[in-house]
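Shipment paperwork, digital attachment
Item: protein structure file
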Amino acid sequence: MGIRCGIVGLPNVGKSTLFNALTATGAAQVGNFPFCTVDPNVGRVNVPDPRLEAIRDIAASQKTVWNQIEFVDIAGLVKGASRGEGLGNKFLANIREVDAVLHLVRCFDGGDVSHVDGSVDPLRDIETIDTELMLSDLESLEKRADASAKRAKGGDREAQADLPLMERALEALRDGCPARSIEVSEDERKRFDMLQLLTSKPVLYVCNVDEGDAAEGNAHTQTVAAHAASENAQAVVVSAKIESELAEIEDPEEKSVFLEDLGLEKPGLNRVIRAAYALLGLITFFTAGPKEARAWTVVNGAKAPQAAGEIHGDFERGFICAETIGFDDYIALKGEQGAKQAGRMRQEGRDYGVKDGDVFLFRFNV
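Attachment content:
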């Protein structure tokens, strides 16, 4: 399944710098002026996973196919974006197309880059973005709710099902809360997602700090982390400057030394992706053979036939069973043959819930 994350924030907080570093493309123009990015830049990156490398080595696979995540660098939003200020309507439309929002917040003082509001205040910046997104949702949802109410009175079943969700979302928005704050049942989830509300998107706060604060954060990042916790969200600390420098280093050992000198275990990309997977409730399973070893993504809670469907629709339609080896067993027993001989390769049926790290061989008949 494809994963698309939009990087949003005020102008000049480092979105394009972070995008370039994460994707290592240099595709996004970087400049110290608002609306440097007009059309969204898009880049796809492999999801780092040492488990896939270990599986590949044991299976002696000729090819390695990684999970991928897509980052979208969306132009900076300003006050009044919901009314079209700063090409706001165009930028807001870009947010509707992503699965999750990476809200980049400036958490460093000083430097050569000016702040659009003249001072650094992460909570004020977050409130500015949230307010514009909520105002946009409120305006569009009020119009749609009125139309749905009329259709519901006329007996339209779709409108009758949508209207209660719309009314609950409107109540939250009028109280100054994002649409994602309302409780939505599993049965309602698909219908709620189809409303395509900006504030229904899950949010990961990304704190952009100076080099010296990349390992431990600072007072600003603590403030953001507390705010994220109050929303049951997450926050990660990243230095866009460090990530930019890291992207220019090709030698893996040199990268490790660079990170170690800064007191960092992993690049910011790894932390952002791990947090994004957790935010979206995603897990990884693997397939392996002589031709290729491959990582696949499913929603946590997916059943074996759904995982098979990620590979091909025929696999799901004709699903018979999933021959399954846990990752730890696969490594300890040196692959499929060792797991079979040790009785650690299991046949799982339609009701099997996929576990993170499962190695599958699907049996199907179409």
